[in-house]
Amino acid sequence: MKEYDYHHLHHVKEQSKSKKTLWVTLLLTLFFTIVEIIGGILSNSLALLSDSAHMISDVLALGLSMVAIYMATRPPNARFTFGYLRFEIIASFLNGLALAIIAVGIFVEGVRRFLNPEPIDFKLMLIISSIGLVVNVVLTLVLSRSMKEEENLNVQSALWHFIGDLLSSVGVIISATLIYFTGLQWFDPLISMVIGGIIFIGGWKIIKESYLILMESVPERFNLDEIRSDIAKVEGVEDVHEMHFWAISSDHYSLTAHVFINNKVQPFCIILAINETLKEKYGIEHSTIQMENAHIHPHGEYGKEFLRHQEEEQSKLVTV
């Protein structure tokens, strides 16, 4: 058997647009990160330093996202029969976690600087943050356009990183302006704490979404009861049970179900009808349906109850 024959479906993500987008984003981010670190140290601005720390996390996150996308292009094998699609979700979870940790660090440092204000070079702070604003606007637009063309949780997490960066740049500019006109140095830690809160919200959303996929929960866009009902409407299907539905990656879904069938209907026709229903109505292309006879595969009390219910229905019809 050939190595790529372990599965009948192509569990691979070929996302050329996402690759190009992340490469461009990574190089621009790496360049500006170096600029912002130097500027933050020279100006002694916490808002600028917190933004540069966030930019460092962006570089790491983008690197991890690039690895995830290239891993997703590797074909399934005897050990990883679903391929490497799930690595995308693991990378996204780590990216979200990094965002949350950085946000907490910014908040803690902001409190410290509230208690012990430090002098700031607002002119340098303003110049660096203005350059950062332009860079982040460009990167946010590039990532937003990529998300519309190809669904990828890593690109989404990268987008949240840069939305945070964009807000950081705006925050730093506001902070520098307020310090210039008022002379109040505490605007710097205040703005940095607000930025930290926004970054934390973005990180939490990514953590939640990737966690739900890792826990193999039913994707939020689908209603499991509705899917079960549609399968039950297929001619020859008498009951649907042992049903599981989960996402392998952000847009790769799998479904398994056991069905009690009417022996008078050809089982292959039932499977074909179920698969067509799932594909046409829900876009689910990977499904495993097990045909069962309640007398042979009763599933304990469940099957017995199903048979009792059938007998009651038949007796009612006879009586009528």
TrEMBL record:
Q: What positions does the domain Cation efflux protein transmembrane occupy?
A: 22-215
Keywords, ordered alphabetically: Ion transport, Membrane, Transmembrane, Transmembrane helix, Transport
Name the family the entry cites: Belongs to the cation diffusion facilitator (CDF) transporter (TC 2.A.4) family. SLC30A subfamily.
Q: How does it sit in the membrane?
A: Multi-pass membrane protein
Domain of life per record: Bacteria
The protein's matches in Pfam families, at most eight in alphabetical order, are given as: Cation_efflux, ZT_dimer
Q: Which InterPro entries match?
A: Cation_efflux (IPR002524), Cation_efflux_CTD (IPR027470), Cation_efflux_CTD_sf (IPR036837), Cation_efflux_TM (IPR058533), Cation_efflux_TMD_sf (IPR027469), CDF/SLC30A (IPR050681)
Q: Which SUPFAM superfamilies match?
A: Cation efflux protein cytoplasmic domain-like, Cation efflux protein transmembrane domain-like
* Domain Cation efflux protein cytoplasmic as annotated: residue spans: 220-293
Q: What is this protein called?
A: Cation diffusion facilitator family transporter
Organism for this UniProt entry:
Paenibacillus vulneris
Tell me where the transmembrane regions lie.
Answer: 21-42, 54-72, 84-108, 120-142, 162-183, 189-207
